[in-house]
Amino acid sequence: MIEFKEVTVVYDKDIVGLDNVSFKIEEGEFVFLVGKTGAGKSSAIKLLTGEIKPTSGDVIVDGIVVNRLKRRKIPYLRRAQGVVFQDFRLLPNKTVYENVAFAMEITGKKKKDIQRKVPKILSLVGLSERANNYPNEISGGEQQRVSIARALVNSPSLIIADEPTGNLDVETSAEVMNLFEEINKMGTTIVMVTHSEKIVNDMQKRVIQLENGVLVRDEENGVYNIGA
Amino acid sequence: MTIASFITVTCCLFLFGVFVIFSMNMNYIGKQLEQQCELQAYMYLETDEPQQRAVYEKVLQLDNVYDATLETERQAFENFKKQLGEDGDLLDGLEDKDFLRSSIKITLHDIRKSNDTKKAVEKISGIEKVENYQDTVGKVLSLTGAVNKGSTVGMIVLMIIAVFIIQNTIKLSVFAREKEIHIMKFVGATDRFIRTPFVIEGIMIGALGFIVSYAVILFSYTPAISTVKDLIKMFDFLPLQSCALQLGVMMALFGTMMGAIGSAVSIKRHLKV
Ligand SMILES: Nc1ncnc2c1ncn2[C@@H]1O[C@H](COP(=O)(O)OP(=O)(O)OP(=O)(O)O)[C@@H](O)[C@H]1O
Ligand SMILES: [Mg+2]
């Protein structure tokens, strides 16, 4: 469960990222975060991962007040989250398999567990054949599926995605979105930032819209329609 | 790791080692001075040997006297000749001239009472004057103290330079892996997990620098000391085997700690994600 309680983020030089934003997201929901450039979507996501702290208000994830978490506890928060970015953020000198395994190694998992889990996750995202390829040897859609596999491998209860289809064509985007929907059906909460009208309208999920840092719309089965 | 930074770290460590060995020898010389005689009582030229013996016995019976040695004219002459070393033949033919006096060297139980003892010795007949070397010894000791302070300051300066250099070297390799570090942070790696390989790299730089600089010092110490000893004959210097271990431990600690600190400092900024 995620809760934003009257969250305000002010950056240097009084630039407002978020302005008194409150909302709740329940376990297992699929939520789109939409809005124009600079609306504050990425700021909201950075609050969830503990990368930034609110100027005022509280950000609560699974009962933990993220903004009050000690710095050295943040890694453990992130292990319970899977993060997916527009630019994939894969390690270029590691293979597909190694990129995914890496996320488990970091958390100190046993080698045996890693060897059992990684192939399962790779087959879930349809990349078993590509396990030994390097990121520059596979397509953008495949790279994004690797980063989704990496986000999934530690069995997080929450997946956070900031424009995951931003660098993909329509067809590949649809494939990746199908994958997210499957993951969501298995019970994982998904919070996704997107600029794609088509995706939002096709998926018929809850939509939260931000405008200049203010929450202006929050509706179930919403459409994109962020205005001119 | 660049060759240049390895060389600079090695030079820093070498200088550090020289400072350490220098101050170890200063302390060693200080101890020698402390053990040297504290009072020296000179007898009148007219006194003959039996009279001198009698005076010597009296001195030995004084309260605060720990030990005393009688140095007769002849012995004084021989000692002087020895101190001059190769130039000793200057004295040839002067054996019978009365220019050196018999004296008694006195060490004390309690140095603090040296003035009282000096007065007591002066009262013994046959003694012309008593010299108190406390002042000289004190001056030399405060000089070695100052030199020690100076080399401590030098060591601290070197420490800062070494940390700075190692930090810059590590910075380059951190920079090359910045993206990787960020990814690791997003997947939930702890600071320690990320820091460890860089700290190991820093320690390796320090350790390599240590091996080279320590080897240079080990090979050059004995020849260097014998050169210095030719110039300053008064003092003994530490033989290599009695300072090598302590020096090695200090240099190894210095090198590896600087490496660890330098790399920890340079990665700190990148962990704030
Ligand atoms: N580190 C920062 N320092 C200063 N201002 C920032 C910083 N990050 C974001 N901002 C500002 O905060 C506001 C919200 O930014 P944010 O990145 O949350 O927008 P966004 O909705 O993700 O935009 P986009 O769709 O372009 O990614 C913007 O005005 C932005 O310029
Ligand atoms: Mg953004």
Structure description:
The complex is a heterodimer of chains A (228) and B (273). With 228 residues, chain A is α/β, with parallel strands linked by helices. Chain A has a domain at 91-155. Chain A has 7 helices and 10 strands. Chain A has helices at residues 41-48, 74-79, 96-106, 111-124, 140-152, 170-185, 197-203; strands at residues 2-10, 16-25, 30-34, 56-61, 64-65, 81-85, 158-162, 189-193, 206-211, 214-219. Chain A has a 6-stranded mixed sheet, sandwiched between helices. In chain A, helix 6 links the parallel strand 7 and strand 8. In chain A, helix 3 (96-106) crosses helix 4, helix 3 packs parallel to helix 5 (140-152) and helix 4 crosses helix 5. The radius of gyration of chain A is 17 Å and the shape is globular. The two termini of chain A are 32 Å apart. The model of chain A has no long low-confidence stretch (mean pLDDT 89). Chain B is α+β, with helices and mostly antiparallel strands and 273 residues long. Chain B has 2 domains: 2-33 and 138-271, no CATH class; 38-132, Alpha-Beta Plaits (2-Layer Sandwich), CATH 3.30.70.3040. Chain B is built from 8 helices and 4 strands, in the order H-E-H-E-H-E-H-E-H-H-H-H. Chain B has helices spanning 3-35, 49-61, 73-84, 114-123, 134-176, 178-187, 191-231, 240-268, and strands at 39-43, 65-71, 103-108, 127-132. Chain B has a 4-stranded antiparallel sheet. The longest helix of chain B has 43 residues, at 134-176. Chain B starts with a helix and ends in a 5-residue tail after the last helix. Chains A and B meet through helix 2 and helix 3 of A and helix 6 of B. The complex binds adenosine-5'-triphosphate and magnesium ion. Adenosine-5'-triphosphate (ATP) binds at residues 11-12, 15, 17, 35, 37-43 of chain A.
